[in-house]
Amino acid sequence: MREACARWEVPQFVYDGILVAGELAANAAQHTTSAATLRLDLRRGRLTIAVLDDDPHPAVLHPRPRPGAAGLGLHIVARSADAWGCSSRWSGGKVVWAVLTSERHAREPD
């Protein structure tokens, strides 16, 4: 994430990008048995972070657990990203994605 943000000259995405990518990858590792693939895409000031896996079960944001309990991963993604979701892949499995925008991150302090 750091390398991609440096290459694309978007340092405002580093912190939340690392957080979101880490949570999406951790969820794939914890809840699937397939290998996961991380993809990053920058277009028009929007950084899309996507994790692809072969498990057909959708990622679901469950009600927030009690403080200190496990299961906050997608809550962290939902809070950090401007949008997130889960889509089926035509080849099977799913892609869980999150979008960070320049507008939101330009307003936030470093």
General description of the model:
- This protein is an alpha+beta fold.
- It has one domain: Heat Shock Protein 90.
- The protein contains four helices and four strands.
- The chain has helices at residues 2-8, 14-31, 73-80, 102-107, and strands at 37-43, 46-53, 83-88, 94-101.
- It has a four-stranded antiparallel β-sheet.
- A hairpin with a 2-residue loop joins strand 1 and strand 2.
What attributes characterize this protein structure?
Heat Shock Protein 90; alpha+beta; 110 residues; 4-stranded antiparallel β-sheet
CATH architecture: 2-Layer Sandwich
Uncertain ranges: none
Number of helices: 4
**Overall tally of domains:** 1
Determine the fraction of residues in helical runs and give it as a percent range.
25-40%
Mean pLDDT: 88
The value of Rg in angstroms is: 14 Å
Number of strands: 4
CATH superfamily: Histidine kinase-like ATPase, C-terminal domain
Question: How is the secondary structure organized here?
Answer:
Elements: H1 2-8, H2 14-31, E1 37-43, E2 46-53, H3 73-80, E3 83-88, E4 94-101, H4 102-107
Antiparallel strand pairs: 1-2, 2-4, 3-4
Helix pairs in contact: 2-3
Briefly say what this structure is.
This protein is 35% helix and 26% strand. It is of the alpha+beta class. Strand 3 (83-88) and strand 4 (94-101) form a beta hairpin.
